[in-house]
Structure formats: C-alpha cells, structure tokens
Here is the input.
Amino acid sequence: MNKSFGKLLSFQNRLQKVYRHLSKQANKQGISCYRIYDHDLPEAPFIIEVYDNKLYVSEYKRRHHLTEEEHEQWLDECISIMSAVTGIEKENIYTKLRQRKEGRLGQYQKVAEEKTEFVVEEVGLKFIVNLSDYLDTGLFLDHRITRQIVREQSEGKEVLNLFCYTGSFSVYAIAGGAKEVVSVDLSKTYLSWAERNSHLNFPAYASHKIVHADVLKYLKSLSPESFDLIIMDFSTNYTKFGLHEKNIKATSIKDITKATTPFDFAGKLKRQCFLITK
Here is the structure.
C-alpha cells in the first residue's frame, strides 16, 4: 500500500464514521443542512457541509509537494470518496479553496459567476443559498440554535440585526412575531439577498427595513432605547478574543456559547456567543 492510498483510505474511513453518526442526528431532528467534516485529518483539509442533496466542500489552502496536475487528481479522488460515502452525485458537489483574506469583507468577495442558487429549509423557514459564487453559502449553519433563540424572544419587539449578511436572523425574528426588523450591512449584494429571504418567507410583511450603512457609523445615529433586541454577529479571526465585561453597561452578561453549539459543531466551534441584557 503506497502512502497516498493510505491517506485516502484514512479519509474515507473517517468520513464514513462521522457521516453515519451526524446524518442520523440530522434526520432525527429534521435538519437537511449540516456540517459533516471539519479538517478532521491534516491530510484531508476540508470543510464539508450537506445542503439537501448537494455537498459544499471548502478546501483549506496548504503547502504541499504536489504539482497542479497531481493536486487535481488527488482532489478528484477525494470528491469520489465524498460522493461514495454520502450518495450525492459528483455533479452536485461544489468545491472552493479557502485561504486567509485580510479584512472582514474578504469572505464575502465573489469567487465565481455561476449563480447556482437554490432554496433550503430550516425548521420550516426558507433560505436562498449559493454554493458556487462565494466562499460562504449564505447560511451559517453554526448559528442554527442562536437563530431559534432570536425567534423565541422577538414577539412584539423592535429588532435590529447588525452585520446582517443574508438576513437569516431577520427572517427568524419576523417568524417570531417581531413588530419591526431592521437589517444593516455595508454590502448591497447581501442586503438584497436578505430582502429576498424575507419576501420568500413573508411576502406580506411590510415592517422589514433594509439599511445600507457602515454599522459603527450607523450606531452613532441611534438613541439607546431604539430597539428591544439587537443581534450583532461580528466576525474576528483573533483567537485570543475576550469580552471586556467591565466596559459594558449591562445588568447581566451570559456566555451562551455551549448552549448555542449545534450537534454538528460540537468540540470544533471557534466562535463565542453572549447574551447581554441591559
């Protein structure tokens, strides 16, 4: 057995194991979009996510000694393994190369022009995802539980969604009976996407406002009592991030990271989540 074959076999065995386990949990919970693999093995540096009958595969850029042709062959062999394990046809597997980009907007830049959009469902709500044109798909799966918390707390409230991306939190807030939802982002592309997600679920809902603005500048224009519930999903690559609680005027600050970690991200989630009550 050569070294390359051994690594592919290890990847296949690992993927079979985690997919068998996670797909059972997903089916039990009625979830059709979930992560099945996250760089579990160093020789197979992928993020692999299921979106209904499609796979989204993000390959981490790495240093290796393969030529471009050898890398293409290796990647094709890996994709064949993914197809065999999940039962998803190769033509329904979308691949991206993930590499570090400077600045927050790097992850939102277009990488293709195929516009492969389709609609998926999450607890009865519909979302447009795009597996071909951007590094991210339009729906962050790790916030599945957090979105549900927003839904449960939104009834009759004025809700502000900052750095709203494609507006999934806004949709959940509307579903929860929010009096008004305001979605703010600097990207016109994603604000349009957020509006489409809103209309897809609630075509008659007229109290969803889209604001194109720099969030930090926009906040300066608001009074402290403008909203009842604020969602701020702000990304940072700083691994030593810590909340300076002494500098925050609040009655309580609760770390809900563990409580909002979905089954498919257990032990691998690098983001933090806090519930801050004024």
About this structure: The chain has a mean pLDDT of 90.
